[in-house]
Amino acid sequence: MNWTNRPVIAATGLYTPPESISNAELVESFNEYVARYNEAHAAAIGMGDIDPLQPSSVEFIEKASGIKARHVIDKASILDPEIMCPRIAERDNDQLSIMAEIGVKAAQQALEAAGRAPADVDAVLCAASNMQRPYPAMAIEIQQALGIDGFGFDMNVACSSATFGIQTAADYVRAGNARSVLVVSPEITSGHLNWRDRDSHFIFGDVATAVLVEDAAIAPVNHWEILGTKLKTVFSNNIRNNFGFLNRAAPETASDPDKLFVQEGRKVFKEVVPMVSALILEEAERVQIDPHSLRRLWLHQANAGMNRLIAHRVLGHEADGDESPTVLDTYANTSSAGSIIAFHKHNSDLAGGDTGLICSFGAGYSVGTVFVRKTD
Ligand code: COA
Question: For ligand 1, what atom is nearest to the CA of residue 199?
């Protein structure tokens, strides 16, 4: 084999949980929780000791975020006003873990699309915002379930995990250390979301994606060349989750909002938009692509307004849905999987030679860009 050491995206895969929650269903359950809370605390509220909780609204959610629905692993428990979190049964150690299960489904789709046998894959990276356990690595369980003889490890860069995974996989190919690498992103974000928090209860959804990065020498005829990748991180507390193994002991922490996803949404919006746009424009210059000529942007799916602004700065004009497709309406924010879902669902119609950009951004802060060109 004449290896090229040129990494390409050979194929992608997507697993979408069958259950979905509409904004109307979500708000009905949230507002029932608010009504029950206010009733139970009526005396303290009447005395002015605590503030009453405010109801959520379908109109606000759609206007502020562009989100209309989200897929989840366990709809019933999330919508039960007495529970309001997913209740996913623990499995025995000899059963496949839930994260591995959905990751495997997405990975199998990618392998099938590429016509690749698992035995020919060299490595599995499980790149996601949350791992259901510290070890053994989710990636190794996925590797075992698929029958891959190689190595695997987990990596977490929050919403940028998948693009950081793509660059890591691309670097293995560039260095010749691996020829075929699976980047799997099972994102069960419903587990870290505070479904009782009015400011953010609508944000996230569950999904799994897979990206097969390969040496151009073995990739299927139709693939996407990786023209350049660029990563950036800048520390910020504006998106944070303090859950971890060091705070497991105190029972009161179990319901502490600080141990779930928290964010300063407005600050994130203001600080991340310029950072992302600047990184994209710098990297476009380095890989000698006129950003205005990019045929499509597959942006991180967190907020429709943010994507509008970023796309405008990059393309030089207001982008339409064809230039910057959204999956936010049906999937919500699926953390690192968002830009990959957008790419997976909206790349087959592009022509040979078309260039595009997969870009993620989120907690850290973190930004990852992957410039790609469709083969002729
Ligand atoms: N229903 C109704 N009203 C709500 C509400 C809800 N669920 N949540 C908040 N509001 C109200 C607030 O009380 C506030 O009212 P006020 O102006 O009277 O005080 C108003 O809506 C505006 O709230 P704000 O939080 O400033 O909204 P926003 O327009 O900034 O939208 C986000 C909130 C979170 C959707 C938006 O900031 C965002 O998406 N930011 C980026 C987030 C991001 O990318 N995060 C990365 C995660 S990986």
Answer: 8
Q: What is the CATH number of the domain that holds 285?
A: 3.40.47.10
Q: pLDDT grade, residue 118 (50/70/90)? A: very high
Evaluate whether 172 touches 182 at the Cβ level (below 8 Å). no
Q: For residue range 59-114, what is the model confidence (pLDDT) as tens digits?
A: 999 999 999 999 999 999 999 999 999 999 999 999 999 999 999 999 999 999 99
Question: What CA–CA distance (Å, rounded) separates 353 from 30?
Answer: 48
Q: Catalytic: 159?
A: yes
Asked whether 14 lines ligand 1 (CB < 6 A), one says no
CB atoms within 10 A of CB 144: 15
Query: Has residue 98 been placed in a domain?
Result: no
Residue whose CB lies within 8 A of the most ligand 1 atoms, among 60, 264, 299, for a mutation test: 60
pTM recorded for the entire structure:
0.96
* H or E element, residue 231: strand 224-233
Q: Which domain holds residue 291?
A: 224-374
CA 262 to ligand 1 center in whole angstroms:
12
